[in-house]
Amino acid sequence: MSATRMLVSMAVCASLLSACVPAAAAEAGIVSFVLISDAEASINDPGGLPGIVRRVERLRVAPDFAVSLGNNIAADGGNAEVDVLAYQASAGRLPCAHYYCLGDNEWAAVAADDRLSWEELYKTWRMPRGYYSFDAAGLHVCVLDTALALSRPENAEALAAQAQWLEQDLAATTARTVILCHRSVSLQKGDVAHWTGDAQLEFWPQDNPLAQTLRKYAEKIVGVFEGDAARSFLREKHGLLHHQVGSASTKVRPESQFAQVFIELATGNWFVLGNPETIDQREQFHIQLTYGDRSLLKTVRQAREDALFVDDPEVLFELMMQDIFAADERMRLERLAVEELERELEALDREINASLGTNP
């Protein structure tokens, strides 16, 4: 085989793998998504986020979507407005749709940085508000705002509005559902033996309206995926499976980590794949565990192999061109994201310079 033909063959294989894996997962009735917890990134220290984005691009099974589970920006980044823009620029490079949960750091940032309002945060992160839902590949996804500040008396009206929305949303759906949030609204200190920093850890009040609503609709909910506590674990309470996603912050662990979740829609079976993969939770590390029904990966792999059995040259060429066009579109969107960030930074520089110019 000539070098040219070999390169063409390699390109075709690569295009088939990238083009067919998501379709193969859908064909198998399995939805997949990536969860990034507590990245705590800033413009000066993006931490493990850029590396996570690169590794998600290379996953064997492309995710249908990705979600950052709160504490996305650093608590002490110094410039929350710019940190929010920088996070969006990095997350915008993911090869799938990306969504956000709000965490305690985001609430603190809006309170502390008068340049960042809730409206600006929602606009930059393309959120309709702090809580919302969407449907992806047959799965219903509820994103909750569970920052601890929302549990306090001064925010009772906002909490009641979210609880009413959650009741209506869960009552209306007939699809299998997952709940995504930052802090757990259901688990208490006694439910887990090894809370991280439990001397300082606070919890939502028991029987708060969000927890009550989740219990009421537990039969619809495949799992509740939460951030904040750093160490990964699985706990069952009141008929709900709570998955704690390990922190991506490099302050916790030298190598950043994330979880890829697989859910079979027909059965509700699930599998959580830690990246990097491990089934050993050692006390000195906070590692995202791999657990659940690994046969789901075999199902996806078989569907992918079936999809790859193509010998029509015209079909092969069309698949390769689709992949090339998709790559071009990703590059275009990346350039737009970078340009948007540059414009925001230039505007910030002008604002700072103007402010300095008015001071004696």
CATH topology of the largest domain: Purple Acid Phosphatase, chain A, domain 2
CATH architecture designation of the largest domain? 4-Layer Sandwich
Q: Which percent range fits the helix content? A: 40-55%
In the sheet with the most strands, the strands line up as 3-2-1-10-11-12
Q: Given the C-alpha coordinates, what overall shape results?
A: globular
Class from secondary-structure proportions: alpha/beta
**Fourth CATH level, the homologous superfamily of the largest domain:** Metallo-dependent phosphatases
Largest beta-sheet characterization: 6 strands, mixed
Number of helices: 9
Strand content: 15-25%
Radius of gyration from the CA trace? 22 Å
Under the CATH scheme, which class of the largest domain? Answer: Alpha Beta
List low-confidence stretches: 1-21
**What is the total tally of β strands?**
12
